[in-house]
Design a protein that fits this description.
With 316 residues, the chain is of the alpha/beta class. It is 36% helix and 20% strand. The strands form four sheets. Strands 9-12-11-10 form a four-stranded mixed sheet, with helices on one face. Strands 3-2-4 form a three-stranded antiparallel sheet, with helices on both faces. A three-stranded mixed sheet has the order 6-8-7, covered by helices on one side. Strand 10 and strand 11 form a beta hairpin. Helix 1 packs across helix 6, helix 3 crosses helix 6 and helix 6 packs across helix 7. The radius of gyration is 31 Å and the shape is elongated.
Protein backbone atom coordinates (compact mmCIF):
# COMPACT_ATOMS: atom_id res chain seq x y z
CA UNK A 1 0.00 0.00 0.00
CA UNK A 2 2.55 2.66 -1.12
CA UNK A 3 1.85 6.28 -0.28
CA UNK A 4 2.26 9.40 -2.42
CA UNK A 5 6.01 9.42 -1.77
CA UNK A 6 6.44 5.83 -2.98
CA UNK A 7 7.04 4.52 0.54
CA UNK A 8 4.95 1.75 2.06
CA UNK A 9 2.06 2.96 4.16
CA UNK A 10 -1.28 4.73 3.80
CA UNK A 11 -1.52 7.88 1.74
CA UNK A 12 -2.52 11.04 3.63
CA UNK A 13 -6.06 11.71 2.51
CA UNK A 14 -8.59 14.36 3.57
CA UNK A 15 -11.15 11.55 3.73
CA UNK A 16 -11.04 10.30 7.31
CA UNK A 17 -12.13 6.72 6.68
CA UNK A 18 -10.27 4.29 4.48
CA UNK A 19 -12.08 2.57 1.63
CA UNK A 20 -14.31 -0.11 3.08
CA UNK A 21 -13.95 -3.78 2.07
CA UNK A 22 -16.43 -5.01 -0.52
CA UNK A 23 -18.46 -7.03 1.99
CA UNK A 24 -18.85 -4.13 4.43
CA UNK A 25 -22.62 -4.56 4.35
CA UNK A 26 -22.54 -8.17 5.51
CA UNK A 27 -24.26 -8.83 8.83
CA UNK A 28 -21.85 -8.88 11.76
CA UNK A 29 -22.12 -8.30 15.51
CA UNK A 30 -21.15 -4.82 16.79
CA UNK A 31 -17.49 -4.40 17.57
CA UNK A 32 -16.28 -2.51 20.64
CA UNK A 33 -13.79 0.20 19.70
CA UNK A 34 -11.50 1.91 22.16
CA UNK A 35 -11.91 5.67 21.57
CA UNK A 36 -8.50 6.46 23.04
CA UNK A 37 -6.73 4.01 20.73
CA UNK A 38 -8.68 5.35 17.75
CA UNK A 39 -7.69 8.90 18.67
CA UNK A 40 -4.02 7.91 18.64
CA UNK A 41 -4.47 6.14 15.32
CA UNK A 42 -6.00 9.16 13.61
CA UNK A 43 -3.14 11.49 14.57
CA UNK A 44 -0.40 8.93 13.81
CA UNK A 45 1.87 9.85 10.91
CA UNK A 46 4.61 7.43 9.92
CA UNK A 47 5.19 6.34 6.31
CA UNK A 48 6.44 2.94 7.51
CA UNK A 49 3.43 1.98 9.60
CA UNK A 50 -0.28 2.45 10.05
CA UNK A 51 -2.95 1.67 12.61
CA UNK A 52 -5.45 -1.04 11.72
CA UNK A 53 -8.90 -1.87 13.11
CA UNK A 54 -9.53 -5.58 13.65
CA UNK A 55 -13.19 -6.03 12.69
CA UNK A 56 -13.46 -9.27 14.65
CA UNK A 57 -12.01 -8.18 17.99
CA UNK A 58 -12.36 -4.38 17.79
CA UNK A 59 -8.65 -4.02 18.56
CA UNK A 60 -6.85 -1.00 17.12
CA UNK A 61 -3.22 -1.96 16.63
CA UNK A 62 -0.10 -0.48 15.06
CA UNK A 63 1.11 -2.41 12.02
CA UNK A 64 4.66 -1.91 10.72
CA UNK A 65 5.00 -2.59 7.02
CA UNK A 66 7.62 -5.17 6.00
CA UNK A 67 8.59 -5.89 9.62
CA UNK A 68 6.84 -9.26 9.58
CA UNK A 69 6.19 -10.70 6.12
CA UNK A 70 3.51 -13.17 7.31
CA UNK A 71 1.65 -10.53 9.34
CA UNK A 72 1.95 -8.02 6.51
CA UNK A 73 0.44 -10.49 4.04
CA UNK A 74 -2.40 -11.28 6.43
CA UNK A 75 -3.34 -7.60 6.86
CA UNK A 76 -3.13 -6.91 3.16
CA UNK A 77 -5.06 -10.01 2.12
CA UNK A 78 -7.86 -10.25 4.69
CA UNK A 79 -9.62 -6.98 4.06
CA UNK A 80 -12.82 -8.48 5.43
CA UNK A 81 -11.15 -8.41 8.87
CA UNK A 82 -8.51 -5.67 8.84
CA UNK A 83 -9.56 -2.09 8.25
CA UNK A 84 -6.65 0.38 7.77
CA UNK A 85 -7.10 3.72 9.54
CA UNK A 86 -5.96 6.68 7.51
CA UNK A 87 -4.56 9.52 9.60
CA UNK A 88 -6.00 13.00 9.57
CA UNK A 89 -4.59 15.08 6.76
CA UNK A 90 -1.84 17.47 8.00
CA UNK A 91 -3.76 20.46 6.61
CA UNK A 92 -6.40 19.88 9.30
CA UNK A 93 -3.68 20.22 11.96
CA UNK A 94 -2.64 23.59 10.60
CA UNK A 95 -6.26 24.73 10.53
CA UNK A 96 -6.57 23.76 14.19
CA UNK A 97 -3.54 25.95 14.98
CA UNK A 98 -5.01 28.90 13.06
CA UNK A 99 -8.38 28.48 14.77
CA UNK A 100 -6.71 28.28 18.19
CA UNK A 101 -4.90 31.57 17.63
CA UNK A 102 -8.20 33.26 16.79
CA UNK A 103 -9.82 31.59 19.82
CA UNK A 104 -7.40 33.29 22.20
CA UNK A 105 -8.42 36.66 23.66
CA UNK A 106 -6.82 39.74 22.12
CA UNK A 107 -3.37 40.16 23.67
CA UNK A 108 0.31 40.63 22.72
CA UNK A 109 0.74 36.84 22.85
CA UNK A 110 -2.07 36.36 20.33
CA UNK A 111 -0.52 38.96 18.01
CA UNK A 112 2.85 37.22 18.23
CA UNK A 113 1.25 33.86 17.46
CA UNK A 114 -0.47 35.32 14.41
CA UNK A 115 2.94 36.27 13.01
CA UNK A 116 4.47 32.93 14.06
CA UNK A 117 2.10 30.77 11.99
CA UNK A 118 2.74 32.57 8.70
CA UNK A 119 4.91 30.90 6.06
CA UNK A 120 6.90 27.69 5.86
CA UNK A 121 7.70 25.97 9.14
CA UNK A 122 4.71 27.54 10.85
CA UNK A 123 3.78 24.51 12.94
CA UNK A 124 7.30 24.08 14.33
CA UNK A 125 7.52 27.78 15.21
CA UNK A 126 4.10 27.55 16.86
CA UNK A 127 5.14 24.58 19.02
CA UNK A 128 8.37 26.31 20.04
CA UNK A 129 6.47 29.46 20.97
CA UNK A 130 3.78 27.83 23.12
CA UNK A 131 6.46 25.72 24.82
CA UNK A 132 7.65 28.97 26.40
CA UNK A 133 4.15 30.04 27.44
CA UNK A 134 2.76 27.43 29.87
CA UNK A 135 -0.77 28.84 30.09
CA UNK A 136 -1.21 28.97 26.31
CA UNK A 137 0.43 25.54 25.94
CA UNK A 138 -2.07 23.92 28.32
CA UNK A 139 -4.95 25.63 26.56
CA UNK A 140 -3.61 24.53 23.17
CA UNK A 141 -3.35 20.88 24.22
CA UNK A 142 -6.99 20.91 25.33
CA UNK A 143 -8.13 22.77 22.21
CA UNK A 144 -6.16 20.34 20.01
CA UNK A 145 -7.69 17.33 21.77
CA UNK A 146 -11.17 18.74 21.29
CA UNK A 147 -10.58 19.20 17.56
CA UNK A 148 -9.11 15.72 17.19
CA UNK A 149 -12.00 14.14 19.08
CA UNK A 150 -14.38 15.75 16.60
CA UNK A 151 -12.52 13.83 13.87
CA UNK A 152 -12.88 10.65 15.91
CA UNK A 153 -16.65 11.20 15.98
CA UNK A 154 -16.71 11.82 12.22
CA UNK A 155 -14.67 8.68 11.58
CA UNK A 156 -17.02 6.54 13.64
CA UNK A 157 -20.07 8.07 11.98
CA UNK A 158 -18.71 7.03 8.57
CA UNK A 159 -17.54 3.55 9.62
CA UNK A 160 -19.70 1.09 7.63
CA UNK A 161 -19.76 -1.59 10.34
CA UNK A 162 -21.87 -2.00 13.50
CA UNK A 163 -19.81 -0.71 16.42
CA UNK A 164 -19.97 0.24 20.09
CA UNK A 165 -17.34 2.85 20.99
CA UNK A 166 -16.11 3.19 24.56
CA UNK A 167 -13.64 5.60 26.14
CA UNK A 168 -11.63 4.41 29.17
CA UNK A 169 -10.74 8.04 29.92
CA UNK A 170 -14.19 9.52 29.31
CA UNK A 171 -14.54 11.40 32.61
CA UNK A 172 -11.06 12.93 32.50
CA UNK A 173 -11.46 13.87 28.85
CA UNK A 174 -14.89 15.43 29.43
CA UNK A 175 -13.54 17.60 32.25
CA UNK A 176 -10.74 18.87 30.03
CA UNK A 177 -12.97 19.53 27.04
CA UNK A 178 -15.60 21.23 29.20
CA UNK A 179 -12.98 23.77 30.26
CA UNK A 180 -12.67 24.89 26.64
CA UNK A 181 -16.43 25.05 26.20
CA UNK A 182 -16.75 27.15 29.35
CA UNK A 183 -14.21 29.62 28.00
CA UNK A 184 -15.89 29.66 24.61
CA UNK A 185 -19.34 30.29 26.09
CA UNK A 186 -18.11 33.26 28.13
CA UNK A 187 -16.54 35.11 25.22
CA UNK A 188 -17.90 37.12 22.36
CA UNK A 189 -15.38 36.73 19.55
CA UNK A 190 -15.53 39.90 17.47
CA UNK A 191 -13.36 39.84 14.39
CA UNK A 192 -13.85 43.41 13.21
CA UNK A 193 -16.31 46.28 12.99
CA UNK A 194 -18.44 45.40 9.98
CA UNK A 195 -20.39 48.62 9.44
CA UNK A 196 -21.77 51.77 11.03
CA UNK A 197 -25.36 53.04 10.93
CA UNK A 198 -25.92 56.76 10.49
CA UNK A 199 -29.47 58.14 10.48
CA UNK A 200 -30.11 61.05 8.10
CA UNK A 201 -33.12 63.31 7.56
CA UNK A 202 -32.61 63.84 3.83
CA UNK A 203 -31.26 60.76 2.05
CA UNK A 204 -30.56 62.57 -1.24
CA UNK A 205 -28.64 65.33 0.52
CA UNK A 206 -26.70 62.74 2.52
CA UNK A 207 -25.76 60.85 -0.65
CA UNK A 208 -24.52 64.06 -2.25
CA UNK A 209 -22.47 64.85 0.85
CA UNK A 210 -20.90 61.42 1.47
CA UNK A 211 -20.65 60.10 -2.09
CA UNK A 212 -19.98 63.22 -4.13
CA UNK A 213 -18.18 65.50 -1.70
CA UNK A 214 -16.41 63.00 0.57
CA UNK A 215 -15.94 60.51 -2.32
CA UNK A 216 -17.12 57.38 -0.48
CA UNK A 217 -17.99 54.73 -3.11
CA UNK A 218 -21.19 52.69 -3.01
CA UNK A 219 -20.77 49.27 -1.41
CA UNK A 220 -22.04 46.03 -2.91
CA UNK A 221 -23.78 44.53 0.09
CA UNK A 222 -27.00 43.03 1.38
CA UNK A 223 -29.93 45.29 2.37
CA UNK A 224 -28.79 47.42 5.27
CA UNK A 225 -31.92 47.80 7.38
CA UNK A 226 -35.35 46.47 8.16
CA UNK A 227 -37.78 45.82 5.28
CA UNK A 228 -39.25 49.08 4.01
CA UNK A 229 -36.44 51.21 5.48
CA UNK A 230 -34.65 53.22 2.79
CA UNK A 231 -30.94 53.87 2.82
CA UNK A 232 -27.57 53.68 1.09
CA UNK A 233 -24.49 51.57 1.71
CA UNK A 234 -21.11 53.23 1.25
CA UNK A 235 -17.60 51.93 1.72
CA UNK A 236 -14.67 53.54 3.50
CA UNK A 237 -11.65 51.22 3.46
CA UNK A 238 -12.66 47.92 5.08
CA UNK A 239 -15.66 49.50 6.76
CA UNK A 240 -19.17 50.13 5.47
CA UNK A 241 -21.22 53.23 6.29
CA UNK A 242 -24.96 52.62 6.14
CA UNK A 243 -27.05 55.75 5.68
CA UNK A 244 -30.52 55.08 7.06
CA UNK A 245 -33.33 57.44 6.07
CA UNK A 246 -35.17 58.78 9.12
CA UNK A 247 -37.20 61.91 8.26
CA UNK A 248 -38.44 62.14 11.87
CA UNK A 249 -34.98 62.39 13.43
CA UNK A 250 -34.15 65.57 15.32
CA UNK A 251 -31.08 67.48 14.32
CA UNK A 252 -28.03 66.46 16.30
CA UNK A 253 -27.26 68.69 19.26
CA UNK A 254 -24.51 71.21 18.70
CA UNK A 255 -21.36 70.33 20.61
CA UNK A 256 -22.14 66.61 20.85
CA UNK A 257 -19.56 63.91 20.23
CA UNK A 258 -18.71 63.30 16.55
CA UNK A 259 -20.68 60.46 14.97
CA UNK A 260 -17.88 59.68 12.50
CA UNK A 261 -14.17 60.36 12.21
CA UNK A 262 -12.36 60.24 8.87
CA UNK A 263 -8.60 60.29 8.39
CA UNK A 264 -7.54 62.62 5.57
CA UNK A 265 -4.25 63.04 3.75
CA UNK A 266 -4.36 66.81 4.10
CA UNK A 267 -6.58 68.75 6.46
CA UNK A 268 -5.92 71.99 4.59
CA UNK A 269 -6.96 70.49 1.24
CA UNK A 270 -10.09 68.94 2.77
CA UNK A 271 -11.06 72.27 4.31
CA UNK A 272 -10.64 74.04 0.98
CA UNK A 273 -12.79 71.47 -0.87
CA UNK A 274 -15.55 71.52 1.75
CA UNK A 275 -15.72 75.29 2.14
CA UNK A 276 -15.80 75.76 -1.63
CA UNK A 277 -18.92 73.53 -1.59
CA UNK A 278 -20.51 75.68 1.10
CA UNK A 279 -19.81 73.38 4.06
CA UNK A 280 -18.64 75.16 7.19
CA UNK A 281 -15.56 73.64 8.82
CA UNK A 282 -14.62 74.40 12.41
CA UNK A 283 -11.25 75.69 13.59
CA UNK A 284 -8.22 73.43 13.52
CA UNK A 285 -7.25 71.76 16.79
CA UNK A 286 -3.83 70.31 17.57
CA UNK A 287 -3.92 66.87 19.22
CA UNK A 288 -1.14 64.63 20.58
CA UNK A 289 -1.56 62.37 17.54
CA UNK A 290 -2.03 65.07 14.90
CA UNK A 291 -4.70 67.68 14.29
CA UNK A 292 -8.39 67.79 13.54
CA UNK A 293 -11.35 69.90 12.45
CA UNK A 294 -15.09 69.39 12.97
CA UNK A 295 -18.03 69.87 10.62
CA UNK A 296 -21.64 68.73 10.23
CA UNK A 297 -23.35 66.72 7.49
CA UNK A 298 -26.72 67.90 6.08
CA UNK A 299 -28.57 66.15 8.92
CA UNK A 300 -26.48 67.74 11.65
CA UNK A 301 -24.34 64.63 12.35
CA UNK A 302 -20.95 65.84 13.54
CA UNK A 303 -17.96 64.69 11.48
CA UNK A 304 -14.35 64.74 12.59
CA UNK A 305 -11.53 65.04 10.05
CA UNK A 306 -8.15 63.82 11.31
CA UNK A 307 -4.69 64.38 9.89
CA UNK A 308 -2.24 62.08 11.74
CA UNK A 309 1.00 63.52 13.08
CA UNK A 310 2.98 61.33 10.67
CA UNK A 311 1.39 63.18 7.76
CA UNK A 312 2.18 66.64 9.17
CA UNK A 313 5.28 68.22 7.75
CA UNK A 314 7.75 69.51 10.29
CA UNK A 315 8.08 73.32 10.31
CA UNK A 316 11.10 74.66 8.42
Amino acid sequence: MPNDEGKPGPAHDPVLVATAPQNAGAARPPIRINIDQLHIALVWRDPGSTYVLDLQTGEVFLHHYNADAARDAEVRTHTERYHPIRPIDPKHSYQAVADFVEFLPESPVRNQLRATILGKGAFRRFKDFVAGHPAEKELWLIFKEQREMSYVEQWLALLPYPHEPYDPFAERRKARLDSIENLRSKRVRIRRVDHLHLRVQDLAAARDFYQELLQLPAAETTPLAAPGEAGSCLRCGNLELHLVHDPQMSRAESGGAPALAFEVASLAQARQALESAGVAVGPEEVLPGGRRALLEDPSGNRIELLEPAAAIEAPV
